[in-house]
From TrEMBL:
It catalyses: dUMP + (6R)-5,10-methylene-5,6,7,8-tetrahydrofolate = 7,8-dihydrofolate + dTMP. Residues 2-288 form the Thymidylate synthase/dCMP hydroxymethylase domain. This is Thymidylate synthase. Pathway: Pyrimidine metabolism; dTTP biosynthesis. (6R)-5,10-methylene-5,6,7,8-tetrahydrofolate binds at residues 51, 193, 287. The gene is thyA2. The lineage of its organism: Bacteria, Bacillati, Mycoplasmatota, Mollicutes, Candidatus Hepatoplasmataceae. InterPro entries: Thymidate_synth/dCMP_Mease, Thymidate_synth/dCMP_Mease_dom, Thymidate_synth/dCMP_Mease_sf, Thymidylate_synthase, Thymidylate_synthase_AS. Catalyzes the reductive methylation of 2'-deoxyuridine-5'-monophosphate (dUMP) to 2'-deoxythymidine-5'-monophosphate (dTMP) while utilizing 5,10-methylenetetrahydrofolate (mTHF) as the methyl donor and reductant in the reaction, yielding dihydrofolate (DHF) as a by-product. This enzymatic reaction provides an intracellular de novo source of dTMP, an essential precursor for DNA biosynthesis. Gene3D superfamilies: Thymidylate synthase/dCMP hydroxymethylase domain. Its EC number is 2.1.1.45. One of its GO terms (cellular component) is cytosol. It holds the Pfam family Thymidylat_synt.
Length: 288
């Protein structure tokens, strides 16, 4: 994953200091593209431990069209908790509950989860119901019936719904491409948190491409990652400097053990990550 380390170094050396919505501040650079081969390995960061469980559960959550964190929370995935918790803290029902209290309420109280666990019409909603259009279903249909089409596109950026989302989509628009029975995917990501978010995004869309190829009897070829504003938050700079000193390990492989009629029928247990060797975790706080 030298491509990823090169992105970190580029921002540190050439980036611009820029204020941002969160108030944390960033070092930022605009516009680049990286390519990751999917034919033999799964692209996943090895210079720190990346939470494969969280990545895969989140992807399955997107595919099912879900936008409530309860599924994630029940599977001990916390990556989306900050935004609904902040929303809850701003409500009249908030009585100084901690994040731990909030998570327990999401787990145990279905009515509470329905009220305060929803993120609005984020990724899963747009993938499966963009103003009534199931984009994922349409993409699969085109990949089967007209794989040469230049319209095999899924957009999470819906201008009509952006203001209703607790966090507008960062990875906003992706397109599939088939040549010689091999499937590639290009993602446009408008905003890219290099230290925390991008490692998830690279692996998530690589898994999605491998999964769709498996599902349709194709082979996975390449994931192409096009970035708009890619940045390092100021409170991640020391962690990034530590990470770029580490040497990457060989990439692991991903095995999908079953095949189903519908893409949304795949479960976590159908996937196996093989030989993931990595350096130790490096912790950083998410900017909300």
């Amino acid at each position: 994953m030298k491509q990823y380390l090169d992105l970190l170094q580029k921002v540190l050396k050439e980036g611009n200091k820029k204020e941002d919505r969160t108030g944390v501040g960033t070092i930022s650079y605009f516009a680049t593209q990286t390519r990751y081969n999917l034919e033999n390995n799964l692209p996943i960061i090895t210079t720190k431990e990346v939470n494969f469980k969280a990545i895969l559960h989140e992807l399955l959550w997107f595919i099912k069209g879900d936008t409530n964190i309860r599924y994630l929370v029940l599977n001990d995935v916390s990556i989306w908790n900050d935004w609904p918790y902040q929303n809850f803290k701003n409500s009249k029902d908030y009585k100084n509950e901690t994040m731990s209290d909030f998570v327990n309420l999401i787990k145990k109280d279905l009515n509470f989860a329905k009220k305060y666990g929803n993120l609005g019409p984020v990724y899963g909603k747009q993938w499966r119901d963009f103003d009534g259009k199931d984009q994922l279903k349409e993409a699969l249909k085109l990949l089967k019936e007209n794989p040469n089409s230049r319209r095999i596109i899924i957009s999470a950026w819906n201008p009509n719904d952006v203001d209703k989302m607790l966090l507008p989509p960062c990875h906003a628009f992706f397109q599939f491409y088939v040549i010689d029975g091999k499937l590639s995917c290009q993602l446009y990501q408008r905003s890219a948190d290099l230290f925390l978010g991008v490692p998830f995004n690279i692996t998530s869309y690589s898994i999605l491409t491998i999964l769709i190829a498996h599902h349709l009897g194709l082979k996975a070829k390449e994931f192409i990652h096009t970035l708009g504003d890619f940045h390092i938050y100021k409170n991640h700079i020391e962690q990034v400097k530590l990470q770029i000193e580490r040497n990457p390990y060989p990439l692991p492989k991903l095995k999908i053990k079953n095949k189903y009629q519908n893409l949304e029928d795949y479960n976590f247990s159908d996937f196996e990550l093989i030989n993931y060797k990595h350096h130790s975790k490096i912790v950083g706080k998410v900017a909300v």
